[in-house]
Design brief:
The structure holds 3 protein chains of 3 kinds. Chain A is α/β, with parallel strands linked by helices. Helix content of chain A is about 40%, strand content about 15%. The termini of chain B are far apart. Chain C is mainly α. Chain C has a domain of about 210 residues. Chain C contains 14 helices and 2 strands, in the order H-H-H-H-H-E-H-H-H-H-E-H-H-H-H-H. Chain C has a two-stranded antiparallel sheet. The relative contact order of chain C is 0.17. The chains are: A alpha/beta, B mainly alpha, C mainly alpha.
């Protein structure tokens, strides 16, 4: 008797599977699959990305003359496809490489998306892009920084974001500039978590400084989502480095700020590597006690009326949050993908791939501060770059370096609270 | 150097007291009912959110937030006891893991649904800054949590050993049928135990919220610490949880400072395993 | 031979499934169900039949996954060659861990297994040679068939089906052997079993090692299918819990319990994620959590016990698992 019921259960499971099939393709709609962490510890990233993509599809699908010559804004829909609308289908990767891969497969085979966009965590990007590669569907990544992603010989993988080697160079140049202005920047400490992001970025930065004859004086690694960071702050307080580079996610960034205040520790220069320090939750929670922290960002808002200012405004209306670097890089990446589909004039994967390869966007066509978008043979954007911003007067970052597009001069030393 | 060490040890003791504070509720139900509550970390999380809501809606600090969190969580404890625990208590241990793990997901993602995934935080210095004396720095909010941890431990211990309610509860834990014959209602006693345990956990959450970040998944981070603390201290032993919490806090702090933070959890787990070898019933547990 | 009718029907259905539901996603779901069924069935040997609730089984899963990916990433071999290595690692580790921990009672054993798994995860996270936090990748562009990197889920499906059949056969054979008899006695009352002369410690250890070996095979297959392992996806405690939940939900200590649990939970998780996950409101897990709570509350012995013996709580052994 047992197995009769077992069969019944299996059949029920199978039937529920059958229900997932049968997604209908509609005319005049270009589907783009998006894989993001919508649940788990990094779910706020997914929530922000969702709001940003809503804004991006609004800009693409409706006429927005106020954005001037910003690509895809002027008319409704994708002109290259006869005004076809873009539809975003978001899938939750749960921060898990296996789930990300399953969802990539579903988006490609069930939803029949023209391209895949994602997936935040480098591990998830790795597994989900492998499926896209096997199916021959373009995959655009706008925020994962692991170096190995573009070293796999993939033909369908494109990445718009700057990676660790790019920021390492920015930090070296920025600190050299500060030094020439009289600041003491000789001993540098790197503080990072032990995730793939933390260790790989820390290694690259250490390498870049060593190359310039500036070995890292202190390397402080800590476990991600730490319950306590006093030991690390005390280590810094003990060794007194001039510059502290922080590579942390939001949870630890908040705890670091609180711990530094309670132990009364202020380095002369506190330089953060994006991630947690760019999260609006960070500035809301501890911005008041982190005054003067420098941060790396490719996102710099232009003057009122400029496309970046208008987009930032639209995003704020949608999500209630200030636009930050991570979400801006994602939005920019999505525009690059949509632009390629527009130029391809087709949803055929090979044509989109060819259009992506031919991408050559100029700085004025971007909402973000890259020097442009142009992919090399490996699919990496060679013109990705970033600037340094600083938290001054309250909870907003202002650009301070490079001087050419700086809104204010860097404020030294780190003020804290 | 030695001065820094003193600061490290003091910091570790305060951290340990916090561990003890949010573990006392877990050890109580674990010892009394032999129930593994996988949702314990999420009870702490709920306490934090209650404190946060009290602060944002009414502008109340911990003086208002902590009692309210205790009350709300105690009520939830009773609801959970009658709704779920009573049904799975007599089942196999697996059913308990299944039920409380499901409850953990349910609580965590209900909060997620309501509040979103953003990191929240109480304003800095909500409990009056940092005390500095002789170069030593102690955060008032952590000190408060530490003091309350001692009081809660003492209170629970006295309740269990010195009051008739406590002896009734212990009687039920010892032998339900016998207790029933003596006119004690096991249901009532166990519901009270859940209320007390959940209430203490809510109180812990409200106090931790003063110096930690608040996010729906924070229970995952804290839950596993509570599990180790309780096992090291001995299931059901409230003083054991305090000693184990302090021990873990100091070990973590010292190993984090001396040999590197990424190894501090390894040190704790290895010591824990090593310890089980010699004393399989925990620090202060009964066999 | 009436008892073989239903297993045959199930087997026939399992063999025909990818032909009946042939979309790539459905085939992959089928393969995932089988994969988790292998892992949960392996866990069932020690967690269900022996009653030793291991919450750290992911450590053996990780042995297999890392051995398979290591064989490729470190030695350029086919991941298949990692399987024996993974088994040796897992069995060795089980012996080292099992001797001191299996004498612990109830919750202490569970906690000790968690501690072992977490220690291992932290060590691997900080070990450069094993890819640290970045993890190890498998072949993305297969060199030959032995790289086991397929576009279609079909080869995985049938491979997993064969391994599942072997796992279930071993379990079945074990329960009907002297070892199974001892395990049932130990689960009922270890003291009584000992006093009757059952070699309790040795039997539990053997069951633990057997379970570890099979779990490591599941881990290796998992890594091959996804072409990747990192500390979180290969050694994260959540995988242990997932395996345990599948076995418990279907019916621990029953031969087909883990399969039923996997056949319900894997599609439930993937489909609810596909439907609700993109909304970003965490609804996937609200639904998932609620269903688990309801099953635990109203059917604490697992779903299969509802079907076998209505009403009687399933706390005893798997003595009558066979149909």
């Amino acid at each position: 008797m047992t197995l009769k019921r077992v069969t019944g259960l299996l059949c029920a499971a199978a039937m529920s599977l059958a229900l997932t099939a049968g997604a209908q393709a509609q005319d005049k709609v270009v589907k783009i699959g998006v894989i993001m962490p919508m649940s788990g510890g990094t779910a706020s990233i997914g929530a922000h990305a969702k709001a940003a993509l809503d804004v991006a599809t609004d800009i693409i699908n409706n006429a927005h003359p106020e954005l001037g010559n910003f690509p895809l804004a002027k008319n409704a829909g994708l002109a290259g496809l006869g005004g076809a609308k873009v539809e975003v289908i978001i899938a939750d990767n749960q921060g898990n490489p296996a789930t990300g891969q399953n969802q990539a497969l579903r988006l490609i085979t069930e939803e029949k998306v023209a391209a895949v966009f994602g997936s935040y965590q480098s591990g998830v990007t790795l597994t989900s892009s492998a499926i896209a590669e096997k199916y021959g569907v373009p995959f655009l990544n706008s925020e994962s920084v692991a170096a190995n992603l573009t070293e796999r010989g993939f033909k369908w993988f494109f990445r718009t974001t700057p990676i660790a080697t790019d920021f390492a160079k920015i930090y070296v140049d920025f600190l050299a500039d500060l030094k020439s202005q009289g600041a003491k920047t000789d001993s540098v400490a790197v503080v990072h978590d032990n995730t793939e992001y933390g260790t790989s970025v820390a290694n690259t930065i250490s390498g870049a400084f060593k190359e310039k004859g500036l070995p890292i004086a202190l390397d402080v690694a800590y476990p991600v989502n730490a319950t306590d960071l006093q030991g690390q702050v005390l280590q810094l307080k003990d060794k007194k480095p001039d510059v502290v580079i922080m590579i942390s996610y939001t949870s630890d960034a908040i705890l670091f700020a609180k711990t530094m205040q309670s132990l009364d520790y202020k380095p002369a220069v506190l330089l953060a590597d994006d991630a947690g320090y760019s999260d609006p939750s960070f500035t809301k929670a501890v911005g008041k006690i982190s005054q003067g922290v420098f941060n790396r960002s490719s996102w710099v808002v232009g003057p009122a009326g400029s496309p970046s200012a208008i987009i930032a405004d639209m995003y704020k209306k949608k999500s209630g949050e200030e636009m930050d670097d991570t979400v801006a890089r994602q939005m920019q990446g999505f525009f690059v993908l949509a632009d390629a589909i527009d130029r391809a004039g087709s949803t055929e994967p090979a044509k989109i791939q060819a259009a992506l390869k031919a991408t050559d966007l100029k700085p004025e066509q971007l909402m973000i501060g890259y020097k442009g978008v142009k992919f090399d043979d490996k699919g990496q954007n060679t013109l990705a770059s970033g600037a340094i911003i600083q938290l001054q007067d309250g909870e907003n970052y202002v650009s301070v370096w490079p001087k050419a597009n700086a809104a204010k001069a860097p404020m030294l030393p780190y003020k804290g609270w | 150097m030695s001065f820094v060490l003193v600061q490290v040890i003091v910091g570790g003791l305060l951290l340990g007291a916090v561990y003890a504070l949010f573990s006392s509720g877990l050890t109580l139900v674990w010892g009394m009912m032999n129930i593994v509550n996988f949702a314990h970390g999420d009870f702490v999380m709920l306490g934090m959110y209650v404190a946060y809501v009290v602060y944002t809606l009414m502008g109340g600090g911990p003086l208002l937030g902590a009692p309210l969190a205790t009350l709300v969580l105690a009520t939830l404890g009773i609801v959970v006891y009658f709704g779920l625990i009573r049904g799975i208590m007599k089942g196999p241990m697996l059913a308990q893991i299944l039920g409380t793990f499901g409850l953990a997901l349910l609580l965590r993602y209900s909060v997620f649904w309501w509040f979103g995934a953003n990191f929240l935080s109480m304003p800095p210095n909500i409990v009056g800054g940092t005390y500095a004396f002789a170069g030593l720095r102690i955060e008032a909010s952590r000190l408060l949590a530490g003091v309350v941890a001692l009081l809660v431990t003492l209170g629970l211990h006295l309740l269990l050993t010195r009051t008739s309610l406590g002896s009734k509860m212990l009687a039920v834990a010892e032998d339900q049928t016998a207790a029933q014959l003596m006119g004690i209602r096991p249901d009532t006693m166990q519901a009270i135990a859940w209320a007390i345990a959940a209430g203490a956990t809510g109180l812990a959450g409200a106090l931790i919220a003063n110096f930690f970040y608040i996010v729906p998944t924070v229970g995952e981070t804290l839950g596993i610490v509570a599990f180790v603390t309780v096992s090291l201290g001995g299931f059901g032993s409230v003083p054991g949880a305090l000693v184990a919490g302090l021990l873990i806090g100091v070990i973590e702090s010292l190993s984090g400072y001396l040999i590197g933070a990424i190894y501090k959890d390894i040190v704790v787990y290895v010591l824990f395993l090593f310890f089980l070898w010699f004393r399989p019933q925990g620090l202060m547990g009964k066999m | 031979m009436r008892r073989w009718i239903w297993p045959s029907v199930v087997a026939a259905f399992a063999i025909a499934y990818p032909l009946l539901l042939s979309s790539p996603f459905q085939q992959r779901l089928g393969a995932l169900v089988l994969l988790y069924a292998i892992a949960a069935s392996a866990w069932n040997i020690v967690g269900g039949y022996a009653g030793q609730v291991s919450v750290g089984h992911v450590v053996f899963f990780g042995c297999g996954a890392y051995a398979a990916m290591g064989a490729y990433a470190k030695f350029g071999l086919s991941p298949l060659f990692g399987i024996p290595g993974g088994i040796v690692l897992a069995v060795g580790l089980a012996a080292i861990v099992g001797v001191p921990t299996l004498r612990l009672s109830g919750h202490y054993f569970s906690m000790a297994t968690i501690a072992v798994a977490e220690t291992m995860r932290l060590i691997v996270t900080n070990t450069e040679w094993l890819g640290a936090a970045v993890g190890l990748s498998g072949p993305t562009v297969p060199r030959n068939i032995f790289d086991l990197s397929f576009l279609s889920a079909l080869p995985y499906y049938y491979l997993f089906l064969i391994i599942l059949a072997i796992t279930l056969a071993i379990t079945w054979w074990m329960t009907n052997s002297r070892m199974g008899f001892y395990l049932r006695a130990i689960k009922d009352s270890e003291r009584a079993a000992r006093s009757l002369g059952a070699p309790a410690s040795r039997t539990k250890l053997y069951a633990y090692m057997l379970s570890a070996a099979l779990t490591s095979v599941a881990g290796a297959l998992y890594a091959m299918m996804f072409g990747f392992v990192d500390p979180e996806s290969g050694l994260g405690i959540l995988i242990s819990v997932k395996i345990l939940i599948m076995a418990a939900l279907g019916g621990a200590g029953l031969l087909f319990g883990p399969l039923v649990g996997a056949a319900i939970l894997v599609p439930l998780e993937e489909i609810s994620n596909s439907w609700l996950g993109g909304k970003g409101a965490g609804l996937t897990f609200v639904v998932y959590g609620a269903i688990i709570v309801l099953i635990a509350r109203f059917q604490p012995g697992g779903l299969l016990s509802l079907l076998t013996r209505r009403g009687k709580p399933k706390t005893d052994t798997g003595a009558s698992h066979a149909p």
